[in-house]
Amino acid sequence: MLTVLHDITERVQAQQLLEHRVEERTRELSSLLDISHTVASTLQLNPLLGLILDQLKTVIDYTGSAILVVEGEDLIVLDNRSPIQEVQLMQLRFPLKDLGPIWDTMISRETIIMPDVRDDTYLAQAFRTALGQLGETTFSYVRACMIVPLSLKDQVIGMLVLTSSNEKAFTPHHAALALAIANQAAVAIENARLYEQAQTLAAIEERQRLARELHDSVSQALYGISLGVHTARMQLDRNPKDLAESLDYVLELAEAALIEMRALIFELRPESLETEGFVTALTKQAAALHARHGILVKLDLGQEPDIALKVKQDLYRIAQEALHNMVKHARASQVEIKFNQKNEVVILEIRDNGKGFDTTASFPGHLGLHSMQERVKSLGGELLIESAPGQGTRIRAQIPVHTATHNTGSLTA
Question: Domains of the chain, with CATH numbers?
Fold first, then answer.
């Protein structure tokens, strides 16, 4: 009888252990999936890396964590979760030459586990050397440490460091989990860098476009005004009866140049959206489009929306890009711009009577369409593009009200 009870007890314990392991593994896989979704959801490092470290905490019980990247000849902290004051930690720089065998191990793409940073192993000694006096003060809480390389393609770009106030806190299983998460962090860092480069290039292209607009519109208008005034001056002496016609021509050019300058200044200073409003911005853009290209623009904008400034800026850039594409590619003679709030979304719609294009194909020469898609996606919205050859184009951006009201992220033009 005792043997039977013993066997039953062992089977129950084995079943409980198996269930515990399955539950633990499920939690780990769920955390990895959450991190993957987090990395795919944004191109902004802040707060992305912090979210990764928070999710890492659910599967590895650390006291402190940090993501460091190479900058020049040093390692700097990009983000952390630590008992140390953030201002102090973010100011630290760790020269690569002082890391010795620790950095050599990172370059070889191996993970370091130090059960006790105060023992006599060569890696523990290197760890204490790298910290210097900080090891006795700022980092005095550290007993165990795990360091994982951040690798991207064929290059080590930094490291993920986990620390604990308990000895022997980290295991090879923890190392495997941390490495998978470090790879995700490396992808996030690279995506952010590429996005920043793209934004810089976009800003340069925007400045070049504005320079062309100034040359093609305002400078030409000023030249025309100069000629008109010169003609009027001669008519004043020779044929005063024709003076009114010349002055009307000069006045028309001056008004067109003024409209154009206001629109360009608004593009250069989008923060004016905060004071003048989104509806005014689109109205000025429409007036400039008509003055510049003779395109008839119909507006149905309603009241000024109660949405976040950042969302107004992105919607304004979307409208601006759509109108630019319509002028450059569609050869439209008429454009209609609508903006309203319906149920739980705000909707921006722009339609033209241009030549249209095949939306099932790629968008050669239509880089602005990709830019609009990125902006709408960053706001959690949807972008609908309807067009066909000879049938014009309709672009509809739909943004959730909760995003439009509370979004505080940043996408600079």
Answer: 2-195 (3.30.450.40), 279-413 (3.30.565.10)
